[in-house]
């Protein structure tokens, strides 16, 4: 019990400053502006946050606060992919489809199927679901390729999930902006930032492996997260500007690649 | 005129007292059999109880009490059937267990629909148990060499019994079928192909049921959710490892909450079901079965859609709804305690039949659930208490900030002079 209290005492900087708190608010605002600029839409202002919208804000904020990002100090009670995805998506799904008469299962599966496959690929590459394990790049070339392809597939499936206003978010609660802009509410922005950061973690691992000869661990901790963050945002921007057929082709190609690598990795482990 | 009133009182007292008694016996047994199974010498193996028996008694009590709340008629029969199955969980003689399973299904409430399915399930379960005894030549399951009876026929019969019991929606029988299925692990390990059959059957059942649950009406939803959970129980058995047993036990533990949700005013236990999905995916990844983990994740996603659709019941503020949410919260916060104190030692007692491919452990005082693989490497973690504590801290901070901003905003407004 004392161990738990001590760990919670160390979580204050994470909750208030980085990677949660002020950083999360600022970065999610910047991500929203960037995505709006790229997709040539007008970003609607977030309405005032009310007490009623707090339950939707808390789960994504907790995920962001516990994200294993340097230079924040490590936290002994880390999250894994399933818990993070659950905390990010459950309030969103609940807000979107609670009480709706009909659910378009096929549309939702088309949206979330590649994301779930990418999550499975990342789990298989490191034989672990832990978010902190995404930062370690495996030795074997097949596993390495699987991790990279899965991370790219994760990011490739995000435009569908983030920019699709009609899929799940049917009824907007009080405090949300106009319906056309899907990232109007603060909860939706924090969710978007969380999903992007999870995809970024694996890229961060690759960047730290390749920069090892030139940078010390402390320098890498300060330099790499903003650099890789910018690269990830640029990648998202490119995907959003792609023609729809090219985007579908890109996602399909990555799905095939991940499935092939997943099967070969599993077979290699069994044999 | 007096007689019906007296009968009603007697049966209602019996229907509450009998499951409560079972609950107390189960708790006592969990304490007594914590370190090693209870098998008194004088009983010559006919009486044998370990933590799996204790867990079964607790589950029978939970389902019995939930059935009393949900259903209208034949409460005393439910109580008698629960005690009958409870006795079956306490004996070490396979023929006696099989006989009690059939007696229990014959005594089940007459109002139960799908009686034939229930009978077929009981016959399959009893047949599986008897086949184990006949093949191995040992009628006491704790006897040396009883594991020789774990042949394909007996395992298939037990699996079929479990699936039929879940399809018949006969909850007490389902608990008993799961008891028989998990009991086989104290006899010895399953052959690899039968583990695979259980995995395929469980995953198919979970996917099929969650696909239908997504568009089901509120009245039918608990039935589909129970089928998804039955699929997870089969997957837990098919994993044949400690993590699988934890998954199956937790699925059975939150079953009474789903049964209670058959009352429209009682909400479905959303958070415990999401914890269950986490356990399923974590156990599959710990067993290095990533394809299974993806399929279970898909099933969990469809289940989450179904739950999200009905997550705001109209009678949210009613006391029953609040009680339901309180019970769901207890189900989540109690998960590390349940896994750490009851299922952990239970897995140790079933060790004879379990493989090391996946272990799910909990530290009850820090609320951390962790899955490890065969190499004892960390696979997944769910820090329940940390999430709850951080949520409370953030909610308090958010509330405070909103209050301060609200006060400033109201101070900006021009004051209306008092008249």
From TrEMBL, chain A:
Keywords: Membrane, Transmembrane, Transmembrane helix. The chain crosses the membrane at residues 15-36, 48-69, 75-93, 114-135, 141-158, 190-208, 220-238, 250-270. The keyword Oxidoreductase does not apply. This is Uncharacterized protein.
